[in-house]
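Aminopeptidase N, pasting as requested.
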Amino acid sequence: MHTMSCARVKLHLTCIKDETSSIKGTERSQDCLFHKISYLKRGDALSDMTEASRSLEPVDLDVQLPRSIKPLHYVVKLQPFINGNFSIVGYMEVEMEVLEPTSNITLHISDIITKNDTVKVSDQTTSRGLRIKKHEYDHSRHFYIAHLRKELQKGKRYILSMEFLGYLNDMLRGFYRATHKDVDGNIRNAAATQFQPTDARKAFPCFDEPALKATFEIHLARESWMTTLSNMPIAETVPVEGQEGWMWDRYEKSVPMSTYLVAFVVSDYVHINSTENDRVDFRVWARQETIDQAEYANEIGPKILCFFEDYFNLSYPLPKMDMIALTDLSFGGMENWGLITFSTYNSSVQDDLWKHLTLAAHEDGILPQDVTVKMIMDTWTLQMGYPVVKVTRSPDGTSATLTQERFLLEGSANSSSTTDYKWWVPLTFTTQSEANFSQTQASLWMKDSEDHVTVSSLPPKDQWVIFNLQQAAYYRVNYDDHNWNLIIQQLKKDHQVICPSTEGRLSMMP
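Structure tokens follow.
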């Protein structure tokens, strides 16, 4: 296995740092980098940094990489300027095995500027370099093609290396930037990856297809007060030569995996550790102001991991598992090996959903102007159980008194109190003469502060009345004996008068 010596690492990074030193310090250079990447996206000329030959687009576009070469191991070094102009200085080295003789090396790049004079190909055994005849960029397929003067031999291994520039985008793809506000209202920056399905090529040149698995050695540069994460544990941390206040985190060699599962994060997040699993180092990461909300994940995560190990009779193959809640993520979560990313709210607060539902309900006239969805939902989410509404009709039947209490399966069941539980209950009803079961919007509400509600304008006592049409609301209804008898007579005479969804729920009460 070919590995790059520390001296070569420093040499490459010093060269590219010198080349891009102006990028770090000036808005003009930032604009220059941004425009160069924009040229890449449009398929225009790369810039004076490259002298790329432009290929003609084939009529029948084949986006799959040639199968003459397979990657074995990557070394990727990235220095993202998160708190600067969002540029990325990078170096990539990949060991490859030749499966069929070829004079071309094709891999993926997107939104990256390569330095053609730094692209090197060498024999893994002899370290002898091979001359590159031409650099070609096929923008429609995200291909970079190195045309060699000499054919690569089948069965041999070679090393391809190059330096490049990138940009932390704000599109939540590839290597992107994320922001949040701290408790003092200050903007804090972070950088994270989302490579699924084919966006590793936006972070570093690679063979970006799931079948082309390889091992990875990741190096991430960070300011000393920040933290980095990747799929594997950190092997060592050393200062960045010539850049005070910067550190390199070198990660252990990974297991073979697809490029879309490679992941890394640079942030000022904090973590809590779990002691549940003594074999796997399990940590949950979040912003300082929200880390107290990570306790449940920290408790249940290791248990879930152990469950699946037992269920599949397979051991988790990595020495650690990090889970991080990011403020900006295009998916709900991403199952990167060793570093699972989850999405969290950036600017929403707990009651935002209730607020917007209230506005919509007021606009549509579903709720009175003095009633909010939060008022209603708090009674359903902050206490256990659900209500049973008792309907007691007047002697002449033209009105009814409705009361509520917590439903218990057995009336004699022990409960601290059934009368202390009260809900906002939407009331719908129909009568024997109307038999309209389609109106499920509440005609009135029983408030949690009311002991009872009186419903008037009902039919005479010889006609039934039924509440909670189609069981649209989550509560049961119990009637007085007389009304139950009227409903029973209706079911015996013609049960189709009562809609099936309502009829089915009648059997749930005595």
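Note for the archive: The chain has eight helices and 30 strands.
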